[in-house]
């Protein structure tokens, strides 16, 4: 192999390895060696001198390739495989979200059956109790109020309406408390915040005419009075106790008290006035209790509608979170692919560099090449 062929072989190897050198940041060094190789053999020199010149360039190329090989080997060793722990966590979370969505969406799931049972049972109990109160309030309880001595006092009519207002107000507070307890139980199960209580709900009882019957030498006036606003509150009345507990003992006590007062009263005017008040108040109390029952039914209906909307919203959020998990899993998978792809690329570079180094080392070392 003469020096021109030697030069051509060196140039060929350098050209083939050039992309690897440049990818590893050695473009300047490569260009420098290429320049030296291109300018070689231009002056007048003996065959031996030209070969020595090319040998120096060959050693420069070998040194550059060895340095690059070391860098690639270090990069290969320092590569860190992606942690599959995150991927496993995402997979487990994705399965949990899938089960949760199914649990919320299916009407026959344990969660939905539990919610349905709570609402059905609490609604039936509350409506039945209000129905019982709708019978007791305008009869035994109203009789008890009208039999009290305060009725004979001046503004006794005001006192009667105040007692009715207070009783209705306390009863309605208890109804809202019972509704709130049921709704809170369901919200806790679903993890929702549905609010179906209308704390501005009001009832109005008015009397249609004034009585002309006198009592204690005073005109027994009838005031047109509205009930106070009804909101959420605690328990504090006899009727509320009746709502919660068995009603037999309460009603017996009220009736007995009423009979005692009636027997002790002999005023025919008083009896006539009481009858007039009862005829006017009893139907209105019954109407108010029916409205209360309607209020309860409407609140349950509204709450059940809210459950549907809440589940739909939660399912949308779950679907979004599931998609985020899927995207994260894809990212983990891509990280693994990138890792193995980078490993293959570095391994290919090492193999190529080792091959070219060997080719250069044996170039012109064979005695037959020197002929």
Provide an overview of this structure.
The chain is mostly helical. Helix content is 75%, strand content 1%. The chain has a two-stranded antiparallel ribbon. α2 (27-39) packs antiparallel against α3, α3 (47-78) packs antiparallel against α9 (268-362) and α4 (84-105) packs antiparallel against α9. The protein is rod-shaped.
Tags for this entry?
single chain; about 375 residues; mainly alpha; about 75% helix
Please give the structural blueprint.
Blueprint: H1 3-23, H2 27-39, H3 47-78, H4 84-105, H5 110-146, H6 156-190, E1 214-215, E2 218-219, H7 238-244, H8 248-263, H9 268-362
Antiparallel strand pairs: 1-2
Helix pairs in contact: 1-2, 1-3, 1-9, 2-3, 3-9, 4-9, 5-6, 5-7, 5-8, 5-9, 6-7, 6-9
Fraction of residues in helices? over 70%
Number of helices: 9
State the separation between the terminal residues, measured CA to CA.
6 Å
Proportion of strand residues: under 5%
Outline:
With 371 residues, the protein is mainly alpha-helical. The chain has helices at 3-23, 27-39, 47-78, 84-105, 110-146, 156-190, 238-244, 248-263, 268-362; strands spanning 214-215, 218-219. It contains 9 helices and 2 strands, in the order ααααααββααα.
